[in-house]
């Protein structure tokens, strides 16, 4: 009998669900034993349910091919088979909130890629290198839910990963005003070029809901745990305005960022601060943690999606073109892998952190 934690994937047939399955193949701590999806996939093997819609560039792991897909709505049945679940379901926000809390109430921790619970005050929204301490709010959430071990934790939006970690590293210099434009890959919409041929040679200057997430979610990540009221209080004193654009790239969100500081850092200080920045995942040696969280590239034409998106197996952030600005103080270009660090990989790292801290255990 394996001593690995038994994992279920909710929404296993979609692109993020597939990314979870590919990332968890041979994971040292976690083993995928259950896959769940919509009623139309239930009862089929995973291989049959996905059919020709496997979107990863690595083959479907043999270990999951013959798993029979559960109906994700049969909460008790799915929960009985696992120690915890990753959630990547495709439903309305209200449906996602309800089903994730339903799983939590079966004493099954839920680590979610979805946005539905990102602003639930007692749900931690975590980039593990930045705000591992937000896990403390879980105890308050469990009281609300009436659970002993069940809870919901989420990871933030993929669009903020290419710049929020950099700004975090620069907090000693007191950034207070930020303009960011993100150039977002089509896999962020769960698509490939085969699914979305009209994106070839095209740019769409709108992604629903993305600009609000890009402006507000970093503030929650930088917030504090209010232990008196059992909630996360978002940070104040920094303003972000953004534009989010869909571009003809498969994987990789690029951001161009302009920053004003209250203090006056040098270029050398900024580079040193970001390249030496690390957090709990590096200190704890978590399996999915990048050794180098943020790299700085000196070449004028970097970072590039083609060259840099897979830095640290897609879990690292690449930064380049740091230079003084004539209107703002400094500007830079950041790049992150949107379905690895920005989605499934970020959630796996979050689960590793929660296991290391004792929040996720065997049932």
From TrEMBL:
<dbReference type="InterPro" id="IPR051823">
    <property type="entry name" value="ASADH-related"/>
</dbReference>
<dbReference type="Pfam" id="PF02774">
    <property type="entry name" value="Semialdhyde_dhC"/>
</dbReference>
<protein>
    <submittedName>
        <fullName>Aspartate-semialdehyde dehydrogenase</fullName>
    </submittedName>
</protein>
<dbReference type="GO" id="GO:0051287">
    <property type="term" value="F:NAD binding"/>
</dbReference>
<dbReference type="InterPro" id="IPR005676">
    <property type="entry name" value="Asp_semi-ald_DH_pep-lack"/>
</dbReference>
<dbReference type="GO" id="GO:0046983">
    <property type="term" value="F:protein dimerization activity"/>
</dbReference>
<dbReference type="GO" id="GO:0004073">
    <property type="term" value="F:aspartate-semialdehyde dehydrogenase activity"/>
</dbReference>
<keyword id="KW-0521">NADP</keyword>
<dbReference type="InterPro" id="IPR000534">
    <property type="entry name" value="Semialdehyde_DH_NAD-bd"/>
</dbReference>
<keyword id="KW-0560">Oxidoreductase</keyword>
<dbReference type="InterPro" id="IPR012280">
    <property type="entry name" value="Semialdhyde_DH_dimer_dom"/>
</dbReference>
<dbReference type="GO" id="GO:0050661">
    <property type="term" value="F:NADP binding"/>
</dbReference>
<feature type="domain" description="Semialdehyde dehydrogenase NAD-binding">
    <location>
        <begin position="6"/>
        <end position="138"/>
    </location>
</feature>
<feature type="active site" description="Proton acceptor">
    <location>
        <position position="253"/>
    </location>
</feature>
<dbReference type="GO" id="GO:0009086">
    <property type="term" value="P:methionine biosynthetic process"/>
</dbReference>
<feature type="active site" description="Acyl-thioester intermediate">
    <location>
        <position position="158"/>
    </location>
</feature>
<comment type="similarity">
    <text>Belongs to the aspartate-semialdehyde dehydrogenase family.</text>
</comment>
<dbReference type="InterPro" id="IPR036291">
    <property type="entry name" value="NAD(P)-bd_dom_sf"/>
</dbReference>
<dbReference type="GO" id="GO:0009088">
    <property type="term" value="P:threonine biosynthetic process"/>
</dbReference>
<dbReference type="Pfam" id="PF01118">
    <property type="entry name" value="Semialdhyde_dh"/>
</dbReference>
